[in-house]
Amino acid sequence: MRVALFITCLTDAYFPRTGIAVVKVLEHLGQTVEFPAAQTCCGQPMFNNGFTAEARELARRMVDVFEPFEAVVTPSGSCAAMIREHFAHLFDGEQLMAARAASLAARTFEFSEFLTKVLRVNLRELGVHWEGDVTAHSACHLRGLGLTGVSEGLLGEIQGVKLTPLGKAEQCCGFGGTFAVKYPQISGGMVGEKVECIQATGCSTVVCNEAGCGMNLAGACRRAGAQVRFISLAEIMAEGLGLMERQEGGQ
Amino acid sequence: MTTRTEFLARVSRELGRPAGAGSVGTCPGVDEELVRLTGHGEDVAKLFASRAAAAGMVVHRCAMETLGRTVQTLLGSLGAKGVVLDHLDAPMARSVADAVAGAGVRVIDPVTAKGLDSQFDAEAGITGALSAIAETGTLVVASDKARSRGTFMVPPVHVAIVLETQIIPDMIDLWPLIGNRPSTAVTLISGPSKTADIEGILVTGVHGPGAVHVVLVADAGNLPVGGRR
Amino acid sequence: MSHAPVHRAASEVLSPALPYDMRPAAAVASRNVTLQQFVNSATELKDHGRVSACRAAFGENYGAVRELAGSIKQHTLDHLDHYLERYIDAATAAGVRVHFAADAAEANAICVGIAKANNCRLCVKSKSMVTEETRLVPALEAIGVETLETDLGEFILQLDGDAPSHIVTPMIHKDRAAVARAFVRELGARYTEDPPTLTAIAREHMRKKFRKADQGISGANFLIAETGSLVLCTNEGNADLSVGVPRIHVALVGIEKVIPRMEHLSVFLKLLARSATSQALTVYTSIITGPRKSGEPDGPEEMHVILLDNGRTEILREETRELLRCIRCGACLNACPVYRKVGGGHAYGAVYSGPIGAAITPLLKGLANYPDLPHASSLCGACFEACPVKIDIPKQLIRLRAAMVERRLAGVGERGVMRVWGAILKRPWAYRVAARVGRAVQRSMGEGIASSDPFADRGWISSAPGPLAGWTDVRDLPTPTSRSFREWWAARRTEDRRGEERS
Q1: How far is CA B125 from CA A71, B78, B142, B159, C204, in A?
Q2: How far is C401 from chain B (nearest CA, A)?
Q3: Are C253 and C199 in contact (CB under 8 A)?
Q4: Which ranges in A107-168 belong to alpha helices (H)?
Q5: What digits encode the pLDDT tens for the residues B124-170?
Q6: Are C395 and A52 in contact (CB under 8 A)?
Q7: Looking at chain C, which residue has its C-alpha nearest residue A46?
Q8: Do C152 and B194 lie within an 8 Å CB cutoff?
Q9: Is residue C5 scored above 80 in pLDDT?
Q10: What is the value of ipTM here, to two decimals?
Q11: For A170-227, what is each residue's pLDDT tens digit?
């Protein structure tokens, strides 16, 4: 399948290794991965803050850029949700654009979703082997996309992974985009609780597949002096398949 | 002062409908496949008894022949001196009246009492039931010309006499019994009065009765005494 | 166990100075560890209880049941004028006197008028958010009608001059010691922290009042258009005593409470208690159709229903209409991490708190008056998932944010940033330049790099300037890595091409 990678702004700049891992894993699974260089942002920050006109223009760009591909895969549940849940509505009254946006939405997948729903891979059969004790953060947008537990299920199929469930898994980490900056007390309280839950697992590795949550959680862990390393499912898979060198330490 | 016409015109205007627009299309009905939680095939008496007990009510099962004795023993154990006694349907009325007389308690007839004041001094209220719902262990009582709104609510103990034949599986089965002209008040009771307002700690008997006894009578007395479960 | 007094007068909490700034209240709550633990543990318990109760009852069908409940309410709202007409006719036929209040002042005036006309002196009131909304109790007390809140939680709040902090469990912010103190001070009781004893003290106090009261006030959980009935759900039984014992019953009800038929109660009652308190049903569900009929032994002689608009028709507009589906179960409050972190409902500065409050308060009281409420949300969607009538609250919050932008209520700074950022993101070359500049600036401020991998060598900023200061107030900010994904991809393509040329 000819798959386009939508890297998202945050993953591009802050977690590029996750993007590299996604490419390597998808190629390993026989997909032809392309990276349309004209891509920028899905417009979620504008949309969520009520700047609808700005968001609409970015959505239009996204449709133009990604339309030629059979499938679009992104390592972010929240950007996938933006395309899936909001793009078509942004073009209410523009019939053709709305149809194009809906068609793109139907072909857009979050990474773990693409693995399970489209490629239907089983990581045990695939022979992924990665030794380590981990806990996993579940991003809220995955719940919105009906993907609760999917990433954890995949982790469970990896030989050598010992997964300790994270407390208060259903509670938001407090990122919420500009919310984290505008309401630090509230957001800080939320992420503080997550840090406590992470520490309670005793794990030094947290699997997190959402760049925004990752920045928030990693930043709060570091502030709290918690020695924790963040890694994405794609990175674990790439390392566990020998496609990337295993990386130790660091946040 | 806002009139009915002005008030409703505002609603229509915000809906973008002309005032007095009659057409409404069809409202979705209650899809039983989704909403019914208890079917007709189940042993509703057994289910009701267990769910009512789970809801905190005390269930006493008896046959019609032993109803009087059961009520008399219950009133004795409660040490009730005065009870409010609703007008019950035959055939329970006679045996319950005898039981109350036998227990030597003062009876308050809510129909002749005119008003609820005297009920505040009673120790128990005895009612029948319009129906009972197995799924939730719920009593359904109706208030009308013969039945007071206070009997099950004002005294600190409520005793309800329910026939097994009155039990319906699910709330869905209640509405046909009530029909389009409901009694002035129909009350669904699922346990003793409860609160958890102070630190979430459950306390019973805050305003309504702190104890609800359900005397569950096996249907019609045409079976020999002792021939019942 | 006791926590620092967070006591503010009810009026100050429910009708604060406008525009309301949520941040100070949130900041105070964020420092009150005990209050947070209280609200946290109570809401988490309720939230988990709701999930298991709904799963146990409906299993796989739960989503479809929510969908059905939402669609019945939505249909009713889509034709609300019609269903209100039917309700008014049926209720009138059952002997109810129906009144119409365009706003809070009119509703209170009608209620005060009824009390005066009947020489009422003592009023018992069951829990009702609508009467909080109109501030009815002070209006009655102003004409000398002693008005007693009879829901235990509301009663305690009334003794303390405090305001409810939760739609369903109003004193979620108070502990037993506070109750004990209030009972000693106001009722002359001996000091005890034992909840059953405290409850018994309240019961004895209120039974005397129920016996003497001449007016009873309630809200309603539902109105039934077909029969003119009014439905009340409580666990304590205070509503039944409040509206059954006194001579006059007055119900103050928002227009959104109507449902078409009695049988629809099956859907809503099965969802309401499970969503609110994880019970299958509330202990008491009373369906009241008119006052005492001739020949009936008791019940009120008069029953009045005051239908209240008070801004609801504004919300009835198509884009916000779904908000009126709300059945006030409180599930969204219990599920909301923000509600937990701000120490419960008082921080919202209005009667309706939590996610549903954040969405409706700006519509009822003016967006310019409550600029924080739409924004103080991470849009995590927990409220949407918890809602038994499927109100998309995050979508509604975003809609309010857009309305603020349209009406130029958004900050100038934010508008500037979003416009410039939007312009950059439309142009890939500008995006690449901005990303490089941003990276260079951030990396110059960062420290603590723990990796030599150019795709993982992020540093950390512990104190950022400008708008990002909010971030670094509470956590470190990672910097971009020294190379981006894009650069990796470009380099790889170059290598591939070289490889192709070589071969």
Answers
A1: 70, 12, 14, 6, 18
A2: 22
A3: no
A4: 111-113, 123-126, 140-144, 150-156
A5: 999 999 999 999 999 999 999 999 999 999 999 999 999 999 999 99
A6: no
A7: C418
A8: no
A9: no
A10: 0.96
A11: 999 999 999 999 999 999 999 999 999 999 999 999 999 999 999 999 999 999 999 9
C416–chain B nearest CA distance, Å: 35
**Interface contact flag, B154 C299, Cβ < 8 Å:** no
Q: Do C65 and B6 touch (CB under 8 A)?
A: no
Whether C170 shows a pLDDT value over 90: the answer reads yes
CB contact under 8 A, C202 and B206: yes
Classify residue A238 as left (phi > 0), alpha (psi -120 to 50) or beta: alpha
Count of all residues that appear for chain C in the document: 503
Cβ neighbours of C481 in A, within 8 Å: 13-17
Q: Would you say residue B65 has pLDDT above 90? A: yes
Against chain B, the chains showing at least 3 CB pairs within 8 Å are C
pLDDT of amino acid B48: 98
Cβ partners under 8 Å of residue B114, min gap 6: C297, C298
Do the Cβ atoms of A191 and C475 come within 8 Å? yes
Q: Which residues contact C159 (CB under 8 A, 6 or more apart)?
A: C182, C183, C185, C186, C187
pLDDT at residue A82 is higher than 60: yes
User: Cis link prior to B110 (omega < 30° from 0)?
Assistant: no
pLDDT at position B6: 97
Which among C425, C437, C486 is the top mutation candidate for probing chain A, defined by the most A β-carbons within 10 Å of its own β-carbon? C425
Partner-chain residue, chosen from C405, C455, C487, that has the shortest CB–CB distance to A17: C455
Q: Which H or E run includes C249?
A: strand C248-254
Identify the pLDDT of residue B23: 67
Task: Looking at the complex, report in whole angstroms how far the Cα of residue A73 sits from the nearest Cα belonging to chain C.
Answer: 15
Residues of C in contact with B169 (CB under 8 A): none
Decide if C478 and A48 are in contact by the 8 Å CB cutoff.
no
SS (H, E, C) C54-112: HHHHHHHHHHHHHHHHHHHHHHHHHCHHHHHHHHHHHHHHCCCEEEEECCHHHHHHHHH
Query: Nearest residue on chain A to C462, judged by CA atoms?
Result: A223
Q: What is the pLDDT of residue C78?
A: 96
The answer to whether the Cβ–Cβ distance between C338 and A186 falls below 8 Å is yes
Q: Which residues on A lie below 8 Å from C406 (Cβ)?
A: 50
C59-97 pLDDT, tens digit per residue, is 999 999 999 999 999 999 999 999 999 999 999 999 999
Q: H/E element holding B185?
A: strand B185-189
**How much is the average pLDDT of C176-193?**
96
- Write down the residue that tokens 């239908």 correspond to: C307
Are A46 and C422 within 8 A, CB to CB?
A: yes
Region C366-383: what's the mean pLDDT? 96
**How high is the pLDDT of residue C179?**
96
Consecutive H or E run containing C485: helix C485-502
Q: Which residues have C-beta within 8 Å of that of residue C280, sequence separation ≥ 6?
A: B55, B135, B136, B190, C53, C57, C270, C273, C274
Residue of A36, A144, A38 whose CA lies nearest to A86: A144
pLDDT tens digit sequence for A103-147: 999 999 999 999 999 999 999 999 999 999 999 999 999 888 999
- In Å, how far is C149's CA from the nearest CA of chain B? 12
Q: How many CB atoms lie within 10 A of CB C116?
A: 12
Nearest CA-CA distance, residue A161 and chain C, Å: 22
- Any residues with CB less than 8 A from the CB of A208 and at least 6 apart, and which? A136, A137, A139, A214, A217, A230, A231, A232
**Neighbouring C-beta atoms of residue C367, cutoff 10 Å:** 18
Instruction: Identify all chain A residues contacting C418, using CB atoms and an 8 Å cutoff.
Output: 45-46, 49, 51, 54
Q: Which CA distances in Å does B131 have to B137, B142, B161, B186, C99? A: 11, 9, 10, 10, 34
Selected for mutation to probe chain A from C50, C379, C441, C482 (highest A CB count within 10 Å) is C379
